[in-house]
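pasting for ref
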Amino acid sequence: MKYTLLKLLFAASILVFQVNMLTAQDGSAKATEKEEEGKKLRFNGLGRTLISQTGIDGNVLEADSSTIENLTDGEFMLDLAVNATPNKTSEVQAILRLRNEFGGFFGSGMSVEVRELWARGIIADAIKYRIGDMDVAMSPYTLFNTVEEGSVNEAAVFMPQREVFYYEQFYSDDNTRRLQGAKLDFGVDFTQGLEDIDFSGFIARVRGTDFFTTPTRFISGGQAKFSTVTLNDSLGLRANFGLNVAHTFDDLQSGEATSGIRNTVTTIDFDISILDKKDLGIHLVGETGRSNLELKADSVSIFEEDDTFLDIGAKVFFKPQKLTLSASFVDVGPDFFSIGAQSKRIDYTANKSFYNRIGTDRNVRMPSLFDITRDRALYTFQLSDRLMAYDPRYSNTMPYGTATPNRRGVRFGIDYGEQNDKIEANLGGAFMKEIRGQGTFELKDFTLLRAAANFNIHKFASWENKLRFTLGYQYESISRGGSEVEQADLSSNMIELGLEAELFPKFELLLGAKLLTAEGVDYVPRVDEFNDVKDFPSQFVADDTENLLGAGFKYEFKEGIYMTLQYQSFSSQLGTDDTNDYNLNQIFVLYNMKF
């Protein structure tokens, strides 16, 4: 322990020195707006230093002498963005990454790569184009990057590490997916009836060929968004609606592949403002459409299936009260398949960065709240051509987001307040049922409840320094009747607590906790190609408790530049097999700079 503290103190001293140097450099190098005018070449980017030590103990290690109980790792990374504007209508950018693993000297563990490269511009003052890396999002049923499970209203103490893998995997608040290809956007304005139409189209390669059995895979799509003028001034009646198409296909001319898939999803979405007054607003919202999945061999169709979905509901806005109520009916067919919308962020089959196998039998350790919160190796932005694995303890009702197939039921939501209000809260959930049984004619029932609240305590007392308490809660259960071998009954509870206390300007104490309990049995199918259930490997039995606690300090030098020192402790207790109980602990220091 003494040597661990010495290592961390040494690393912290290096970081403080770097902070002083980089902050000064950032302040002196940044140009004013007038200085930026006329410049054709600009530099910005992100620098990060992360050093951590992770340890493991518990019952699972009592007879295990091969597992190293403490691991130290880290990285020094700089992403340098070079942005050039050769003229008023075009722009190019490249991000060059320099990275060195902690402990690497004289070039050992160092890598240099191009992280991002794109060009964009405007043609004839009318058409926007982009070539290279791009972020694209359409509707929740066509191309959409659904937020991962394992979090409802996460405490601020866990956010720095989450921000790291969000940045690494190109996640954004707009649920975009990172693609590489070409994109066009343009619009048309009207004088009556329609106000405008916005068109967008793209094509991107999502997989390369191996020149033998795996063909190159592309995804293409487009949107046409229509907006009407106000059709009734007294009611505020107007409508926004759109046509969305996403098409994923394999190029059978690449390599020696003889078979490939075609997945086409076509939808119509709408947002109709029935009433829009000063105090009240009522909107009819929804989306409906169809998917088609086809397997072709030598240009001949040998398999094909399609299905539909309907998602329709209403939103009511009580504007003075900052209150929004929503409810919708959802029916997503069992064979509905959308590669761009159903691909998950978390790959539960990926190897974890730390302690992937533990115990005397070297069994693969199941991903936990600890891993979901910090391990970027579990996360991906790639598109999957089949439904990915999921963990029913974290998400069972809609593991693939809104577009989860084989679901029929209702969703609801209540939202109150805004981010900087004294209280901001929301409550949501869903009551769903399977449309088609899996391995049985009996159908599963699903219940999902989620609640979150943020209390800005400093605003109640008119304090200058921030004091914020956050709360999140999720309850989920599934049930299925029938004979003993068909029955399923699994429930889980997750609680999140967080505290942000600004001890003095820009210096915060951060505390947080995640608590999960899961109990019951379920059958999680193993999905084959075309989302057919291959088998049920074994009965999923849970009597689990997971606790993740975090504490630390964060100092923000200026917007986008901060350093945090934290300690996290995790415990996993398996009621069905306490010999595999284990604990993980981590202490880390992170310096992050955007410039």
